[in-house]
């Protein structure tokens, strides 16, 4: 009985040590740091048909352009953001960006932010986000100036 208890104790300790050390599980997919940005860079489309082109740099910076298929927006708007360059091997890449809807064609007096995670698995490449869209308003109407929602972006070929 004592041998059994010692064996179970040793197995439990070995399991705890691997958890504490941060060693990846055998089924985890580990991407080299140089590939994290390339996983984000490229063309994306959401469920409403809005498109974006992301350019990720090696320091966790994002730049690009966003074209909204809905709302008070016209043509392309600049976007800027950040992403985690060293995400956990068994989780998504945390990412966030902002778009102010002001370009040479229109000033919609609004700003949107997205925060979420990028995943690359058997279901394909996706960025799952929550967003806030705030429109300029009178101070008395601030309570109703921000909308909240979610988007699912998938990798896309965007025609010029």
Describe it for me?
The chain is α+β, with helices and mostly antiparallel strands. The protein is 18% helix and 45% strand. It has two helices and eight strands; from the N terminus they run ααββββββββ. The protein has helices spanning 2-21, 33-40, and strands at residues 42-46, 51-56, 61-67, 77-83, 93-102, 107-121, 124-135, 146-155. The protein has an eight-stranded antiparallel barrel. A hairpin with a 4-residue loop joins strand 1 and strand 2. The longest helix is centred in the first third of the chain and has 20 residues, at 2-21. The model is unreliable at 1-30 (pLDDT under 50).
Order of adjacent strands in the largest pleated sheet: 1-2-3-4-5-6-7-8
Helix and strand pattern: HHEEEEEEEE
What would you call the shape?
Answer: globular
Q: How many angstroms does the end-to-end distance come to?
A: 72 Å
- Low-confidence spans: pLDDT under 50, at least 5 residues? 1-30
**Nearest-integer average pLDDT:** 82
What is the count of DSSP helices, taking H or I runs of 4+ residues? Answer: 2
What summary fits the major beta sheet?
8 strands, antiparallel, barrel
Give the % helix: 10-25%
Rg is 21 Å
User: How many beta-strand elements?
Assistant: 8
Q: Strand share of the residues?
A: over 45%
- The quaternary organization reads as single chain
Q: What structural class do you assign from the helix and strand content?
A: alpha+beta
The gist of it:
With 160 residues, the chain is an alpha+beta fold.
Give keywords.
160 residues, alpha+beta, eight-stranded antiparallel beta barrel, globular, disordered N terminus
